[in-house]
Amino acid sequence: MMLKRWTAGALALALCGGVGSGAWAQQVRAEAELKNVAGDTVGTATFTETEAGVEVQVDVEGFTGGDGVHGIHIHEHGLCSPDFGAAGGHFNPEGLEHGLENPHGPHAGDLTNITIDGQGNRSYSAVGVGFTLGEQVGRSIIAGDGSALIIHAEADDNRTDPDGNSGGRIACGVVEAVNATPVSTESREGNVVTAESNTLIPETERPTAELIASLVVPAGFEVNVFAENMGNARVMAQGDDGTIYVTRREENDVQALVDRDGDGVSDEMRSVAENLPYVNGITVHEGMVYLATDTDVYRAPIEEGGDLGPLEVLIADLPDAGQHPNRTLVVGPDGMLYITVGSTCNNCQETNPESATILRARLDGSEREIFATGLRNTIGFGWHPETGVLYGMDHGSDGRGDDTPPEELNRLKLGNNYGWPFCYANRRVDNHASQTPTGATGPEVCALTEAPVLTYQAHSAPIGFVYYTASQFPSEYQNDAFIAMRGSWNRDPAVGYKVVRLRFENGEPAGYEDFLTGFLLDDGVTHFGRPAGLLVAQDGSLLMAEDTNGVIYRISYTGGQASR
C-alpha cells in the first residue's frame, strides 16, 4: 500500500440547523522541570490543551526513592522554593469537591496516580478537565503567578480526602507557558462548519525476524509469532480443549489453531466455518461458539477435536452495517448475550434505533433489547473481574482534527446514552455534527448523557479489549485490561498501532500505559502491524491478532530482561 498523506486538508460538514460564530482553535502548551527535595532534576512535565482537557505528560528518570504509586496534583502557586510547601494547597478555583469520581466534576488539581518503577523511571500521561492553559484567571494554571505540579510520597485515593491524603511532597515543578502554536482552524459560514483534518495512511511493511525482534514490551516479557499467514485475522476465542478460534472478516470464515506440543507456536490451522460474510465477533460459552457477522448472529456446538457442528441462526436482522460492520459479542455475567452494533456513518442521526448501540438478548436470540445508546463504535468491552462493572472503549468521530474527539472508556449501564453523535468527552457539544438535535439544543442533550470515565488519544481506534485474570504475568497485572489500538488513518503524525494496559486501582480505572509497541516505523510513515483481537490463552500468555499482515503474536512473561 502506498503512503497517503493529506496535510491539513479542509473538511466541510453541512449542518441542518443554525450555528454559532467563528472561532480560532489553538493548542496551548506549558512545561515544568521537576526537581526532588535535594534540588536535583528528576524529570519534566509537558501540558497541552486539547478538546478533551489539558493533557499532562510526565517523564521521570532516575528518581531515587520515588518508586511506587504516588499522588500527583496541580497546586495553587507557581513556587517550589524555599520548600515545596510554598506551592500551597491543591489548585481548586471553583471549589469543586475532591475526587475523580465526583458527579459534579473532578477536583481541579487531581490527576490519576503515577506509578514509578524501581529504577525511578516512568512515562506517564493523564488528562485534567478542571483547569486550562488559557489566560483567564480562575481556571488557568498559567495565569497570575502560575501553579506547580507536585508528586507526593503516597498514593491518592482520588475520592474522599480534600487534601488527597497522599503524604509529603517529593517532587515539584513550576508550570510555565511556552509559545502557543495554532494547530487547527474552524470557520462557520451560514450552515457549514469547516475544520482542518489531516490524513496519513502509513505504508505496510512485511514483518521480518529483525522487525519482530524490535518490538518493545516491559522487562521480563517476550514476544514470539504464534501463527502467521492468517490473512485478515480479527477476533479470537478459546475452547475448553485449548483450540483457538479466529474470525477472518475478509475471508468470511473461522479458523481453528492448535498448539499440540505447548511450545507457544501453533502446529495446525484448519477451517471450521465458512461462507460468513463480515464475520468478526466470536465468543465461547458452555461448549458453544457464538459468531456475529454484520447482520446475523449464529451459534454452533463444539464437537470432539475442536470442530464446529451445524450453525444455528439466532438473529438475522441486525441493522444494516454501513460504515461500521464489525460486530462483537460476549455472554455477560447475567447469562445474556451482549452484541455491539456500530453506527452506519461517521456522524449522523440514525434512523434505526438499534444502530450505534449495545444490544442484549437471551442466548437463543430472543427478547432482544437496547442496552445502551450513543455509542459510535464500541468494539471492545467486558466486565471487570472484581467489581462486575461493564466497561467499553468507543471510537470518536472523524474529521475534527488530530486530537478531537478523544476515544472514550465508558462505564456502560442499562438505559444510558453516551452522547454520540452530538456530544463527546465530558459532555462537550460537537459543533461539527452533521445534524442538530430534534427538539432541544446541543447543551440540553449533552447534559443528559453519560461522560466517559477516561479518554485516550483521538483516532487510536481501540478494538481488542480483555482483562488479565491468569497467573503467568506478575501479580500487578491481575484484573487490569489490555486494549489493542489498531491505529489512525486520519491523523498526522499517526498514533496507535500498539497494545496498551489499562490500569485499575481499587477496582477503578486509573490510567493507561504502553505494553506492546514498535509496529510504527520511520517516524510513523510505515508500519508492519495493526493490532485487532486480544485473547488471554489458557497458559496465561496474551495473544494479539494482527489483521493486515496476518500474524498472531504471543506475549509471555519469562522474568528475564526487557525484550527489545
Give the structure's gist in a few sentences.
With 564 residues, the chain is an all-beta fold. It contains two helices and 41 strands. It has three domains: 38 residues, no CATH class; 149 residues, Superoxide dismutase, copper/zinc binding domain (Immunoglobulin-like); 355 residues, Neuraminidase.
Proportion of residues in β-strands? 35-45%
Total helical segments: 2
Q: Could you give the order of strands across the largest sheet?
A: 6-9-10-2-3-4-8
Kindly provide the radius of gyration, computed on alpha-carbon positions and rounded to a whole number of angstroms.
24 Å
Provide the residue-averaged pLDDT. 85
Structure description:
This protein is an all-beta fold. The protein folds into three domains: about 5-25 and about 185-200, no CATH class; about 30-175, Superoxide dismutase, copper/zinc binding domain (Immunoglobulin-like, Sandwich), CATH 2.60.40.200; about 205-555, TolB, C-terminal domain (Neuraminidase), CATH 2.120.10. The strands form eleven sheets. It has a seven-stranded antiparallel β-sheet, with no helix packed on it. A hairpin with a 7-residue loop joins strand 25 (about 355-360) and strand 26. The longest helix has 5 residues, at about 210-215. The protein is globular, with a radius of gyration of 24 Å.
